[in-house]
Amino acid sequence: MKMRWKRVCLACLAAVLVSGLAGCGSKGPLDPKDPVPLTVWHYYNGSQQAAFDALLEEFNDTVGRERGIYVQSYSQGSVSDLEAAVRDAIRGEVGADEMPDIFSSYADTAYEVEQAGALADLSGYLTQEELEQYVDSYIEEGRIAADGTLRIFPTAKSTEIMMINRTGWEEFTSAAGLSSDITCLSTIEGMAQTAQAYYEWTDSLTPDVPGDGRALYGRDSMANYFIIGLKQLGVEIFHVENGTLTLNVPEEALYRLWESYYVPTVKGYFGAYGKFRSDDVKTGDILAYTGSTTSAMYFPDRVEREDGSWPIDYDLMAAAPVFEGGERVAVQQGAGMVVSRSDERHEYAAVEFLKWFTQAENNLRFGCVSGYLPVLKQANSKEKLDQVIADQELTVAPKTYDCLTMIFEQMEDMSFYTNRSFENGSAARKVLEYHLSDRAAEDRASVAEALARGESLEQACAPYVTRESFTSWYESFCAALNAAVNG
Questions:
Q1: How far is CA 421 from the centre of its chain?
Q2: Which of 1, 71, 99, 314 has its Cα between 20 and 30 A from that of 267?
Q3: E strands of 111-193, at which residues?
């Protein structure tokens, strides 16, 4: 009886050991004869989607086939479309698809899904050695759970750059007797001053039509202007500690931001007209803009206006303009991938795919097309990029190549920042995105009407550029922001 019991115990122990080894061995809980099907939702379109799908097909034909993983991807259209689809799936809305195994997500959306208990904890699927291969701040950004465990897998990141219509810039500086050195645009104050000179010069080209000067500059993300601009001035607008949010909106710092964006916009020195600022460069409405590294591929090769079309060259800077005297801080952005909470086989397989996708060679192949930065430390170098281009015989657009290599070369001189996630973070970010820019656009339209009536620019702008005007906006802004973060 004792011997029989001993054999039973040994058999149970062996079963436990085999099970444990299956979970932590090289193949994990996978079986090539019974592949794990995975679905990925993303917002890639055009060339980005084609590049992602090509990599996914390669994975399925090689590592996926060997390991027992088969991945299918579905573009949900835009970022907002993807977020809506995820929310509908979580709520079980009628007609909604089931939650995908993996989906692209920004931190704010991932935080919402995590609060619903729908995200897998990825920490147990990566060793400490593997985690240390990724850029530290990218991993920290993904630790959105209350206990600090990893919920967002970094797959492709970006920051902001400034791109310039070099042809138009040289025409302006030559005619105005100014230096063509673009370093005068490296500070926000320098940008505003130069934009005024550009407006006055373009206005002078049509002396019979006063007040028709053009804007020099625009930016794609106003939320980044607030978050990074304040950070440059030593203020963290969204300070999150132990899950608790503290709003920091010091009046004088906000006045500096208001004065450096709202005032130039109302006067016509800055502008925003199309969906993206690269569109505004194409129509000749602006010469320079701040946007994501991924926007480099959309910078136009020609200006196309009603009165003609002509080719243009480009120039770029590796960061948005910085406040004079401020710290050189740049935004860290870009969606990662999250894994839906399910079972060990699906979660393990999902992480194995994401590890493969973020290998230097694969991640850089995607970055060469998309303009995204790779996430492994070893991949963020011009040398590694050049090696991958040569080995894979890739054709890379010059604008994308110049953008990536410039960021690589200047990464050590910049401090990258993104705020920690918090409840209602998406709503708070929308206030930053639209509150000031909408007010500026409305007031600029009123100024344009006054100019059409024959008022001078100074007369037309006078009611809008006072300290009282700022105070009115500031109080409204703080009220809107508090309402957003409090739900």
A1: 15
A2: 314
A3: 152-153, 160-165
Q: What b/e readout covers 408-427, taking b as 16+ CB neighbours within 10 angstroms?
A: beebeebebbbbbbbbbbbb
Provide the 8-state DSSP code for 448. H
Sign of the torsion formed by the C-alpha atoms of 253, 255, 257 and 260: negative
At residue 318, the pLDDT reads 84
C-alpha distance from residue 137 to each of 106, 132, 376, 417, 418 (Å): 15, 11, 11, 8, 9
Per DSSP, the residues of 210-270 read TT-----EEES-HHHHHHHHHHHTT--SEEEETTEEEE---HHHHHHHHHHHHHHHHTTSB
Pick from 177, 179, 183: which is nearest to 316 by CA? 183
Residues in CB range of 472: below 8 A, 6 or more apart: none
Q: Residue 36: name the closest of 46, 45, 27 by CA.
A: 27
- Contacts of 406 by beta carbon, 8 Å cutoff, 6+ apart: 161, 316, 317, 318
DSSP 3-state of 376: strand
Around Cβ 220, how many Cβ atoms within 10 Å?
19
Residue 42 structure tokens: 């993303």
SS3 96: coil
Instruction: Tell me how crowded residue 6 is: count the other CB atoms within 10 A of its CB.
Output: 10
Half-sphere exposure of 434 (CA within 13 A, CB side): 8
CA-to-CA distance for 80 and 83, rounded, in angstroms?
5
Residue 7 is predicted with a pLDDT of 41
pLDDT value for 9 = 41
The set of residues, in sequence order, having a beta carbon less than 8 Å from that of 141 and lying 6+ positions away, is 107, 152, 154, 332, 336, 418
Query: How many residues are recorded in the chain?
Result: 487
* 290-299 confidence digits (pLDDT tens): 999 999 999 9
DSSP 134: B
Structure confidence at residue 94 as a pLDDT band (50, 70, 90): confident
Residue among 71, 67, 110 at smallest CA distance from 340: 110
What φ, ψ does residue 166 adopt, rounded to 5°?
-65, -35
- Res 3: pLDDT: 39
Q: What is the pLDDT of residues 232-252, one digit of tens each?
A: 999 999 999 887 999 999 999
DSSP at 412? G
Helix, strand, or coil (residue 72): strand
pLDDT of residue 139: 96
Q: How far apart are CA 38 and CA 63, in angstroms?
A: 14
